[in-house]
Amino acid sequence: MIAEPLFHLILIFSVLLPLVSLTVLALLGVAEKEVDYWQLEHARLRLEKELQESKYMQLHQQIRPHFFFNALNAFLSLARLGKNEEMIRGMEHFALFLRDSYETKQPLIPFKQEWAHTSNYLSGVHGTHC
């Protein structure tokens, strides 16, 4: 016959061990769902960011021809008026503007760089100096 303390110990383990195992399994299931949720959330945020960048690039591509044609019209007007020096300076600034436009691939750039870029456009097309 089994001693009473040993019997109690076996009884406790036979009842507690399945309960502890069930609790651990339940917690693992909850943790797995939480990890899945955060992975999905991360993927959603990444896709939203990519969508915003795509929209920005599409808008940027639509606006670019507008600036180009404005510049060509401004240079044509300066040529017709015989203002060759102003046209040359404007074309130099516009060339800098185009170089910056095609070199910059980032959707966001520092304000100082954006200001220089805008100044080159305005100096090239409108003959103003910022």
Automatic annotation (TrEMBL):
Keywords: Kinase, Membrane, Transferase, Transmembrane, Transmembrane helix. The chain crosses the membrane at residues 6-30. Residues 56-123 form the Signal transduction histidine kinase internal region domain. The keyword Endoplasmic reticulum does not apply. The keyword Transmembrane helix applies. It comes from the Bacteria. GO terms for molecular function: kinase activity. This is Signal transduction histidine kinase, LytS.
